[in-house]
Amino acid sequence: MTRFGDFDVLCRDTPSYTWCNLFYRQILDKDRSLLTTASTPTVSAGMGVNPTCTILRMGHDGSLGNIANIVVCALSMVFIAVMIWVTNRRKAAVGRIELRTFLSLYFLTLPLQLVTTGSFLEQGSTALVVLTAIHAGLVAALFWSLLANGLVATQVVEDGTPSSLIPFYAIAIAFFAATTYISLDIGLSFTHVFGPSTPPEALGSIPLFVLTSIWPAATVILYFGLMTYIVLAVLNEVRPMWFYILSAALFVLSQLDYFLLSRVICKGSSSKVDGAFVATFLETASVGVLYLAWKSITEESWDEDAYYSS
């Protein structure tokens, strides 16, 4: 029976599930016999641990890697770069620096996602483990920055000032450092504090599961609750709320695609692509709509309170 914090089912049934890269090396080091023929030899293995469907490593048996997601990640990087530039131009907008940081963190996750889920590097390699650990750290920091943007929007502290930015960056760095360290310990087992799971085939790590699954879900819910209060109760507006609802819906759809449809797409395409590219597209669209929501509550036509851009 799968316990809380176990990744075995996810690594078997969800193609391109990033954090499985950390556990593959665990199995290699501890008991290679636990790897079935579905995920060996390692030189050509795709993502997952004993996966039901996986995309072979690029260059093996004619594989192009996870080409669809590679393309979508690259296009998303261009789109987010433009959004960062546009955000930076809105000098008087409330929460500009904080939103720019959120967008910058999301931008940094994209090339890492491209590499860690693109079937470029050999499974179990140190390089793949390190890049995956950094990716995990950025994801944890990214969702803190999302929640922090919601807190800044309440204007409890003035945005863009040291009282806002110092805790913003300090906590982001703490999340990044802690999650990256835990991920490295899981993948490389250099202290065994967060190292090999017991039993090894369970691929268990409660801290990693909390930081990469529970924490992001909780921050999305809290952020949506904060912005609902601000838009409907403080600003007494309805139009921006539709942007936040659409952004939340796109994010939820991306996760549903990733966890429910990815294997279906993988099998339907004979292991040429999986649902990761759809999930990435929807996530990027969600971020884009989030920017529109922020823009709509910082327009110069609004003059009720601190959200007025002078």
Automatic annotation (TrEMBL):
Any GO BP: protein folding
Transmembrane segments: 67-87, 99-121, 127-147, 168-194, 214-235, 242-261, 273-294
Protein keywords: Membrane, Transmembrane, Transmembrane helix
Cellular compartments per GO CC: endoplasmic reticulum membrane
GO molecular function terms noted in the UniProt entry: unfolded protein binding
Database matches in InterPro entries: Chs7
Keyword presence, Glycosyltransferase: no
Protein's recorded name: Chitin synthase III catalytic subunit
Biological source species: Mycena rosella
Organism placement in taxonomy: Eukaryota, Fungi, Dikarya, Basidiomycota, Agaricomycotina
